[in-house]
Amino acid sequence: MWSLPASEGESATAHFFLGAGDEGLGTRGIGMRTEESDSELLEDEEDEVPPEPQIIVGICAMTKKSKSKPMTQILERLCRFDYLTVIILGEDVILNEPVENWPSCHCLISFHSKGFPLDKAVAYSKLRNPFLINDLAMQYYIQDRREVYRILQEEGIDLPRYAVLNRDPARPEECNLIEGEDHVEVNGAVFPKPFVEKPVSAEDHNVYIYYPSSAGGGSQRLFRKIGSRSSVYSPESSVRKTGSYIYEEFMPTDGTDVKVYTVGPDYAHAEARKSPALDGKVERDSEGKEIRYPVMLTAMEKLVARKVCVAFKQTVCGFDLLRANGHSFVCDVNGFSFVKNSMKYYDDCAKILGNTIMRELAPQFQIPWSIPTEAEDIPIVPTTSGTMMELRCVIAIIRHGDRTPKQKMKMEVTHPRFFSLFEKHGGYKTGKLKLKRPEQLQEVLDIARLLLAELEKEPGGEIEEKTGKLEQLKSVLEMYGHFSGINRKVQLTYYPHGVKASNEGQDPQPEALGPSLLLVLKWGGELTPAGRVQAEELGRAFRCMYPGGQGDYAGFPGCGLLRLHSTFRHDLKIYASDEGRVQMTAAAFAKGLLALEGELTPILVQMVKSANMNGLLDSDGDSLSSCQHRVKARLHHILQQDAPFGPEDYEQLAPTGSTSLLNSMAVIQNPVKVCDQVFALIENLTHQIQERMQDPKYVDLQLYHSETLELMLQRWSKLERDFRQKSGRYDISKIPDIYDCVKYDVQHN
C-alpha cells in the first residue's frame, strides 16, 4: 500500500491514492476524489481503469469533520476495498450548490455538526436514495436532549431520573419551578442537591452541577474544552432563570466518564476520561491530546451500546455512560463520532463499514461478495503465576488533619421567638432540636440581631437574655460572612421548669419558673488550611503504594496509580464520617492522591462517600466506654495528689514501664503544682488578651480563620473557669483542651 501526501492548497484534488492489494481481488488502483470542482477520479501512472462496476461512497460533512485525522485514516483504509470509491463532497458544494448539482453516490456517510445544512442533506437523500450509514432524520432528534431522553426511555435504557423545565409560553404546565436552599422542584418532581442542569439543546455544552450546602454549596460550570479547562467552580448556588433545561439527579461516578463508540450494533470501543466536573482541568499527554484510558465494557453495557446504535439508527455513534453504584446509565448521545488516535479502531471501523456497504450493495451490482470471517481476537488475560504477585487491595485508616479548637457556648433562652423557632422545626416531638442547615442558622442569627437591637433601645426592658451571650452568638454566626453547614451548629433543649431547676433536681415549687430552652452553640473543630495541605501531601505520598506510582517522593511523577485508577480494575472508595473536618480531609487526600486541582467541594461530592462510620472499624462501644470511665477515675484520683509521685504511683500509672510515661512523670513530679503553674499561665494570657483589647492599636485585629480577640478571650476564659473548680480542685479532663488551644495558637496566632 502506498499513498501520496497532499501538498498545501491541493484541496480540490484527491487526498490519497492507493493500490488495492490486500483483499486478494487484484491490485488495480483505487482513487479517491474530492468534489470541490468537477475534479476527475485520479488514476495511477499505468492508467489502469478501476474495476467496474464501482460503488461510490459519498462523504457529506463540514470540512473540519471530513478532513479530520480519524476520518482520513478510516477512508484511507476503506479505499482498500476493491469495489469502493470514496468521494468527499466539498463544503463549498454542500453550502452553496443546489442538491440536484451534488455528485451522486450509492452510499452516503453524512452527519450534522455546527453549520451543517441538515435540511439539504435530507433533500439529497430523498432525491438520490443512497444507502445511509447514519440515518439523517434521526439527527434532528439528537440535537435536542429532550428527544434523546425520550427515545432512551422508550427503548428501556437506564438513564438518570430527570424532569424537563420548558420555558415555553405555549406550555405553561411544563414551567413550574420551585427553588429551595438545597433542592429544586420541577413540575412536581423534587431533585435534592447535588443535581445537574442541562440546556435542552445538545449543541449547548453549558451544563451546570449544583452542590449541597453541606459540602460547601456553589456549582460547577461545564463547557466545551477551552485549552486545559473543561469546567470551572462557581460560588453561585441558584439555578438559571432563562431558557429551558433538563434537571436530573447527579450520579456519583468516582470521577470518570466512559465514552462509548459504536460501529454498527455489534462493535463498541470504550474509553474513560476524567470527569469534567471533578476539577475542570483537562489531562493532556505529551502531544497535547486529552488523556483517555482503556475500558472493558460489561455484557450489559455492550447490550446498551447495541440498543443505542439501533434506536437512533446511527451505525457510527458515540454516547456517554456513567458508571454509578454498580450500574450504568446513559447520559448523552452524540451521534456520529470517531475514536481519536487508535490504530486498532481505525482498522476495525474501516473493515466493518466496508463489509456493511458491500453486504448491502454488492448483490444489486452483481459483485461476487462473501463476508470474510475471522477468528475473533481472543483477549489474553495475564494471571498471577509463579513468583509474580499482584497487589489486590490496600486499606488505609486515616485521621483528620490540623483543626481549629472545638468550642461551645451555652445560654438559657426564654424569649417567645426562640420558642416559636423550636416549634417550627418540630422540637417538641423529642424535646431536642439540632439546627445545622444555613437557612436554620440564619433564623437564629436574625433572632439574636433583633433582641440586641431591642436591648439597645431599652436596656431595662422585657428581654431576659444576657447581652454578652447574645453578642457572642451573633459574632460566631457571622464569622465567615456566609454559612456552610460544615462548621457550626445550634442545639436547643426544652426544660419545662427552667434549666436551673432541672439541673439541681429540685421539685418544682408552686412559684416555679416557666419553661425555658437551653441553647448550645458549637463551632470550631474545622480543618485549617494547614490541615488541608497535610492531607494533600499525604495523598501524594500515598501514590508510592503502587508500582509506577512513586510520585514526586521517589524522583519521578506518579503515573502508575493514576493510570490504574481510570481502568476497570481499580476500585477506589473513600469513606468519611459526616463531620466536616473529616470530609474535607478526605477530599484533600483524594485531591493529592489523584493529582486533581482546584476547589474541594466538587471532589468531595464525587469522590467521598459519606458513611456512617459506626461498625466500619472494630470497636464495641459499650465495653470500651466502661473501661475508659475506670481509667479516667483512676487518673483523676492520682492526679489530685498534692505530693511528688511515689513508687506506688509509678506502679499504678505506668505498670508497663513505658519510657515516655516514666519520663513525663519524672518531669511533672507533683501533678497539682504543675496544674497550678498551668493555671497561672492561663490567667496571665487572658490578662494580656484583655490589655490588647483595650489598646486602640488592636481594635480591628483579625486572628487566624477570622477569629476576633473577643472570641480568643472567650476560648481561654472558659478554660480558665472550667479548669480550676470552685472547690480549688483541678478538672484534669480539660488538659487535652488546653493542649489543643496552646498548639493551635502557637501554630496560627
TrEMBL record:
Subcellular location: Cell membrane; Cytoplasm, Cytosol
Catalysed reactions, as listed in the record: 5-diphospho-1D-myo-inositol 1,2,3,4,6-pentakisphosphate + ATP + H(+) = 1,5-bis(diphospho)-1D-myo-inositol 2,3,4,6-tetrakisphosphate + ADP; 1D-myo-inositol hexakisphosphate + ATP = 1-diphospho-1D-myo-inositol 2,3,4,5,6-pentakisphosphate + ADP
GO biological process: inositol metabolic process; inositol phosphate biosynthetic process
Assigned EC number: 2.7.4.24
GO MF annotation list: 5-diphosphoinositol pentakisphosphate 1-kinase activity; ATP binding; inositol hexakisphosphate 1-kinase activity
Residue ranges of coiled coil: none
Pfam families, alphabetized: His_Phos_2 (PF00328), PPIP5K2_N (PF18086)
InterPro entries documented for this protein: Acid_Pase_AS, His_Pase_clade-2, His_Pase_VIP1, His_PPase_superfam, VIP1_N
UniProt keyword terms in alphabetical order: ATP-binding, Cell membrane, Cytoplasm, Kinase, Membrane, Nucleotide-binding, Phosphoprotein, Transferase
Broad enzyme group: transferase
Cellular component, GO annotation: cytosol; plasma membrane
Span of domain VIP1 N-terminal: 55-144
Ribonucleoprotein as UniProt keyword: no
Major localisation: membrane
Functional note: Bifunctional inositol kinase that acts in concert with the IP6K kinases to synthesize the diphosphate group-containing inositol pyrophosphates diphosphoinositol pentakisphosphate, PP-InsP5, and bis-diphosphoinositol tetrakisphosphate, (PP)2-InsP4. PP-InsP5 and (PP)2-InsP4, also respectively called InsP7 and InsP8, may regulate a variety of cellular processes, including apoptosis, vesicle trafficking, cytoskeletal dynamics, and exocytosis. Phosphorylates inositol hexakisphosphate (InsP6). Bifunctional inositol kinase that acts in concert with the IP6K kinases IP6K1, IP6K2 and IP6K3 to synthesize the diphosphate group-containing inositol pyrophosphates diphosphoinositol pentakisphosphate, PP-InsP5, and bis-diphosphoinositol tetrakisphosphate, (PP)2-InsP4. PP-InsP5 and (PP)2-InsP4, also respectively called InsP7 and InsP8, regulate a variety of cellular processes, including apoptosis, vesicle trafficking, cytoskeletal dynamics, exocytosis, insulin signaling and neutrophil activation.
Family of this protein: Belongs to the histidine acid phosphatase family. VIP1 subfamily.
Protein's recorded name: Inositol hexakisphosphate and diphosphoinositol-pentakisphosphate kinase
Organism: Rhinolophus ferrumequinum (Greater horseshoe bat)
